[in-house]
């Protein structure tokens, strides 16, 4: 399914991360603790932050390589086959003996809000040995992506080996993981995750303060996504804090929108590297915005999408 002229170039996006199967229920609203609600639909689909980001990039035409662990159950076998059919290089997606494939139980309300419970399964077995086995792909990658749904020491090992850009999505947020930040070319997180690291509730009014505080942890650039308010970013090299706006839409399902953003960001950083960062971020926001207008996670990610057909509004905070 890989499409687009960029696919014929030699860029290489490597994703080190999770692959999980999503079991999603749809209900009028999210239940309160101890409450049972009647839902109206149930869907089984492919997910996991790592695989989501990889698929988002692949659908946009990127050359993608996945380093991940699946269980030796039917879900693992089917997932690996599915990724391969999308054009993802799965030579380093390993089926793990006597371990279940990771799963996510997702509840989605009519207003697009969601709640998620993750059982990591095989994702917990992604090790530094997997990184060593894929070292030729990692060392020559134009960009490598990592998240926090697999053991962090494996991601850190991959970042140390990669000579290209290191894009780290600090999600789901976990305290005491800041030791990887100095190895990150770009740290990407949403306002909830940023709030955990800076110690106050982050929004557009105090975003510049949050960016500066996170930059002190050692990463080169920080991007904080703000949902329908777009994203803000700053860097060590330029202390300006820039707000990139995005289109407001009525959300249908916000599950996986952050992963759509990360996958698109990585793609455009290598296929449109001469573009200003604010336009690359704007284009990634557009991909994420498109994803929330459809149900599902990977199924909501666009293909054959010209994100640079328009110019994105931005301003200094």
UniProtKB/TrEMBL annotation:
<feature type="binding site">
    <location>
        <position position="291"/>
    </location>
    <ligand>
        <name>K(+)</name>
    </ligand>
</feature>
<feature type="binding site">
    <location>
        <position position="296"/>
    </location>
    <ligand>
        <name>K(+)</name>
    </ligand>
</feature>
<feature type="binding site">
    <location>
        <position position="255"/>
    </location>
    <ligand>
        <name>K(+)</name>
    </ligand>
</feature>
<feature type="binding site">
    <location>
        <position position="300"/>
    </location>
    <ligand>
        <name>K(+)</name>
    </ligand>
</feature>
<keyword id="KW-0067">ATP-binding</keyword>
<comment type="similarity">
    <text>Belongs to the carbohydrate kinase pfkB family.</text>
</comment>
<dbReference type="InterPro" id="IPR002139">
    <property type="entry name" value="Ribo/fructo_kinase"/>
</dbReference>
<feature type="binding site">
    <location>
        <position position="149"/>
    </location>
    <ligand>
        <name>substrate</name>
    </ligand>
</feature>
<feature type="binding site">
    <location>
        <position position="259"/>
    </location>
    <ligand>
        <name>substrate</name>
    </ligand>
</feature>
<comment type="similarity">
    <text>Belongs to the carbohydrate kinase PfkB family. Ribokinase subfamily.</text>
</comment>
<comment type="function">
    <text>Catalyzes the phosphorylation of ribose at O-5 in a reaction requiring ATP and magnesium. The resulting D-ribose-5-phosphate can then be used either for sythesis of nucleotides, histidine, and tryptophan, or as a component of the pentose phosphate pathway.</text>
</comment>
<dbReference type="InterPro" id="IPR002173">
    <property type="entry name" value="Carboh/pur_kinase_PfkB_CS"/>
</dbReference>
<keyword id="KW-0963">Cytoplasm</keyword>
<dbReference type="InterPro" id="IPR011611">
    <property type="entry name" value="PfkB_dom"/>
</dbReference>
<feature type="binding site">
    <location>
        <begin position="20"/>
        <end position="22"/>
    </location>
    <ligand>
        <name>substrate</name>
    </ligand>
</feature>
<feature type="binding site">
    <location>
        <begin position="258"/>
        <end position="259"/>
    </location>
    <ligand>
        <name>ATP</name>
    </ligand>
</feature>
<protein>
    <recommendedName>
        <fullName>Ribokinase</fullName>
        <ecNumber>2.7.1.15</ecNumber>
    </recommendedName>
</protein>
<dbReference type="GO" id="GO:0005829">
    <property type="term" value="C:cytosol"/>
</dbReference>
<keyword id="KW-0808">Transferase</keyword>
<comment type="pathway">
    <text>Carbohydrate metabolism; D-ribose degradation; D-ribose 5-phosphate from beta-D-ribopyranose: step 2/2.</text>
</comment>
<dbReference type="GO" id="GO:0004747">
    <property type="term" value="F:ribokinase activity"/>
</dbReference>
<feature type="binding site">
    <location>
        <begin position="225"/>
        <end position="230"/>
    </location>
    <ligand>
        <name>ATP</name>
    </ligand>
</feature>
<keyword id="KW-0539">Nucleus</keyword>
<dbReference type="GO" id="GO:0046872">
    <property type="term" value="F:metal ion binding"/>
</dbReference>
<feature type="binding site">
    <location>
        <position position="253"/>
    </location>
    <ligand>
        <name>K(+)</name>
    </ligand>
</feature>
<keyword id="KW-0547">Nucleotide-binding</keyword>
<dbReference type="GO" id="GO:0005524">
    <property type="term" value="F:ATP binding"/>
</dbReference>
<dbReference type="GO" id="GO:0005634">
    <property type="term" value="C:nucleus"/>
</dbReference>
<dbReference type="Pfam" id="PF00294">
    <property type="entry name" value="PfkB"/>
</dbReference>
<feature type="binding site">
    <location>
        <begin position="48"/>
        <end position="52"/>
    </location>
    <ligand>
        <name>substrate</name>
    </ligand>
</feature>
<feature type="binding site">
    <location>
        <position position="190"/>
    </location>
    <ligand>
        <name>ATP</name>
    </ligand>
</feature>
<dbReference type="InterPro" id="IPR029056">
    <property type="entry name" value="Ribokinase-like"/>
</dbReference>
<feature type="active site" description="Proton acceptor">
    <location>
        <position position="259"/>
    </location>
</feature>
<keyword id="KW-0119">Carbohydrate metabolism</keyword>
<comment type="subunit">
    <text>Homodimer.</text>
</comment>
<feature type="binding site">
    <location>
        <position position="294"/>
    </location>
    <ligand>
        <name>K(+)</name>
    </ligand>
</feature>
<dbReference type="InterPro" id="IPR011877">
    <property type="entry name" value="Ribokinase"/>
</dbReference>
<keyword id="KW-0418">Kinase</keyword>
<feature type="domain" description="Carbohydrate kinase PfkB">
    <location>
        <begin position="11"/>
        <end position="304"/>
    </location>
</feature>
<keyword id="KW-0630">Potassium</keyword>
<keyword id="KW-0479">Metal-binding</keyword>
<keyword id="KW-0460">Magnesium</keyword>
